[in-house]
Amino acid sequence: MLYREAGQYKTSYQADQAVFPLLQDRVGLLVILFVAYVVIPLTGNDFLINAVMTPFLIFSLAAIGLNLLTGYTGLLSLGSGAFMGVGAYACYKLTTYFPDVNIIIWIVASGFVAALVGAIFGLPSLRIKGFYLAIATLAAQFFLEWSFTRVAWLYNHNVSGAIEVPQRTLFGVPITGPNATAETRYLIVLTIVVGMTWVASNIVHGRIGRMWMAVRDMDIAAELMGIRLLPTKLLAFAVSSFYCGVAGAMMVFLWYGGAESTVFSINQSFTILFMIIIGGLGSLLGAYLGAALIFVLPIVLRFVPPKLGIPVHAATVEHITFMIVGALIIFFLIVEPHGLARLWQIGKQKLRVWPFPY
Amino acid sequence: MNVRHLVFGVACGAMLGVTPLATTAVAQDSIYVPLLTYRTGPFANSGIPIANGMHDYLAMLNERDGGIGGVKLNIEECETGYDTKKGVECYESIKGKNPTVINPYSTGITLQLIPKAAVDKIPILSMAYGLSASAIGEKFPWIFNPPATYWDGLSMIFRYIGGKEGGLDRLRGKTVGFIFLESGYGREPIPLLEQFAKDYGFNVKLYSVAGKEMQDQSAQWLAVRRDRPAWMIMWGWGAMNPTAVKRAAETNYPMDKFIGIWWSGSEDDARPAGPGGKGYLTLNLHGVGANYPAIHDIVKHVVGKGKSQVDKSKVGENLYNRGVYNSVLSAEAIRNAQKITGKKVVNGADVRRGLETLNISEARWKELGLPEFAAPITAVSCADHNGHHAAYMQQWDGTKWVKVSDWIVPMKDKVRPLLEAAATDYVTKNTGWPKRSEACDKQS
To answer: How many Å apart are CA B93 and CA B73, to the nearest integer?
Structure first.
């Protein structure tokens, strides 16, 4: 009823090609941004901001990164956890050597280191495809994880083998380290994630995105049309690793405040892969929905029953959470194999023609 | 960016944001003691007995004495799965509820929480684990790791080795193997080990075991067979321990030369190796067995009434008693805090003072119903948050642990300078580390 395009006339090609052609979508987006930027920092408590929203945004960014590679270019990767680690360790080294440069610059810059490493490990992608490529990226995962524990230089020879985040400030306000408030860190993460999502949206709607999708749909046809496969695939690896790297740097610097190498294990890679499978391959929205389902839902399941006064043992909650999340994943995959993003799209289409069925 | 996830997020947020208001009102007249435990995941075999021990002692105080100083304890477990991420989530969820003391029970989680403790004014009790350097109270006013650090542990192991070899100088030219879990925990003792190697002239061989090969370890033990170290020292946890003991037995490594730290000394670590595990040694900080009045009380008031998750036959096992020990330290610190402040319901800042004046004499151990359970805790002070207390060596006889040494005191003269250096190093690397502003109380 409200969600209808009737009366919205497009008078230019630009308006017709907009990412959000409908006024309602644009309003919706503004409402979300308003909630994210104003309502949540003002009303949310530390737990919501620190343990739910910040990690949710960070995982969404990592999922976007993997989605660019797997969803848009069709290259399966199991190394995203390690690429996140590259970003985190790069940021740590950069800020140790150049402590006076603002940490936000280093967080974004560490993405370039991750991009370089990603492009190197993407080299085999020209020759090997599908599951075989997944194995090649698995090698990247194990090799990088091994480096994080064995190359003591990466963690400044700390006795504990962990990286610890020093305090850094922006305009005199601490933004990393224990003295930074949850709200500040959340707002920085939010700004980086929103900005990078906007860039990603422009990439996938433009020439590069079309090249990636052409390669995904049929690489021989794409090659015959004049798309050079190696640069295209390497670019996908580089951009994807850039996103993962920034997500990893944010994870350590703006969320954990320190990390061991185990944080970037193969499980992390799988988690992010599950997020994009559940959320929807080849959709930016899907990355957010997947991160919400895989990351936020277990937290809600773990912390809501005790808060409502239902007495359950902590371990029982954990077991039940495993079962419920597992069942939900299977349920969503049966109902909509193309992921939550597709479900959302169907819903939108239904709303548009409502009350008629089609 | 799109709508659904945030609607969802906000909905969750609203739920989480509103409900604590309802619960905190109730919690005013009790002392909140959160327990970060792990009954799931790859380390559950070590985590379950500890969780039971910690919970049951505090629950027993509630049942038998009505809490501490007449105030009920509000005991709440939060499942971490030994996973740092979940541990930090747990911390975030409990820090608003006025926790008195946090027991992270994982070195990884402790490392994450150390910087937060001073900001949130919540003391952390990482009993004989965590960051060894946090023993320096001057630099880490909110972190406590009594009764001994990992480095004390290593020095006690070397005292024992020295006793068997007839002097540590006899180690010259020999090889000492060190097998450890590849993590912050396993890596902690390496600097001191290398220091000892330099001082006494022996060679060190490091065998690291990554989390995913915990249950395999064939490569490591193959290397051990090749290197033939005179002594093997282990820093293991979870599924790594029983596997290592089993592999050592298969390799025909002399078990009485294989020594584990106190975290590698569960009955379930030695038992699976069968008769081959006989002779395996570990350090221990406290007595084993259920033959203590306090533990009888636990059985009577908690386990007997079905208020515990423990299997009755497992009460008094090594790690169960470790959990009890941990809770004794928490409870004594709370009691101390009540004494110092005169308040009934104490908060985190009070318990920090209670921990700094922690003192459990031999007579006090007896009063607690745990006579000769552990070395008296007498050396914790504002400057020394650890105390470097003694431990003893125990040996597996095939069915149970047997005490085979007297109380061994750590080499404080070797450990303390290294701790000071490590603490200074930590503080300089973390720019903006706050200076200690907390006043020091007199020993009670």
So the answer is: 18
How many Å lie between the alpha carbon of B253 and the closest alpha carbon of chain A? 27
- Which 311-350 residues of chain B touch chain A by CB within 8 A? none
Whether A44 contacts chain B with CB within 8 A: yes
Nearest CA in chain A to B430: A166
What are the start-end ranges of the E strands in chain A? 163-164, 169-170, 173-174, 258-259
ipTM over 0.85: no
Among candidates A28, A174, A260 on the partner chain, residue whose Cβ is nearest the Cβ of B3? A28
Domain residue ranges of chain B, discontinuous segments joined by + = 28-148+289-389, 150-284+393-414
The CATH code of the domain that includes A90 is 1.10.3470
- pLDDT tens for chain A, 358 residues long, are 677 777 788 888 888 888 888 888 888 899 999 999 999 888 888 888 888 899 999 999 999 999 999 999 999 999 999 999 999 999 999 998 998 889 999 999 999 999 999 999 989 888 888 888 888 899 999 999 889 888 889 888 877 778 888 888 888 888 887 778 888 899 999 999 999 999 999 999 999 999 999 999 998 999 999 999 999 999 999 999 999 999 999 999 988 888 888 888 898 999 999 899 889 888 999 999 999 988 888 888 877 776 777 767 777 878 888 888 888 888 888 888 888 888 888 888 888 887 787 7
Provide the pairing of β-strand B258-260 with B281-284. Answer: parallel
- A23 in any annotated domain: no
Q: How far is A220 from chain B (nearest CA, A)?
A: 33
Q: What residues 396-415 of chain B have any CB closer than 8 A to a CB of chain A?
A: none
Residue in the structure block whose two tokens are 């740092």:
B84
Structure tokens at B5: 């996830």
- Name, in order, each residue with C-beta under 8 angstroms of B54's C-beta and a sequence gap of 6 or more: B35, B37, B103, B323, B324, B326, B327
Instruction: State in words which class domain B28-148+289-389 has.
Output: alpha beta
How many angstroms away from the CA of B32 is the closest CA of chain A?
15
In CATH, which superfamily holds the domain spanning B150-284+393-414? Answer: Response regulator (3.40.50.2300)
CA pseudo-torsion sign A266, A268, A271, A275: negative
| CB proximity under 8 Å: B 10-49 to A | 10, 12-13, 15-17, 19-20, 23, 37, 39-40
CA distance B331 to B324: 10
What is the nearest CA distance from A131 to chain B, expressed in angstroms?
Answer: 22
Which of A43, A177, A309 minimises the CB distance to B17? A43
Question: Is A172 strand, coil or helix?
Answer: coil
**Is there a contact between B9 and A197 if contact means CB atoms under 8 Å apart?**
no
Minimal Cβ distance to B2: which of A48, A165, A288: A288
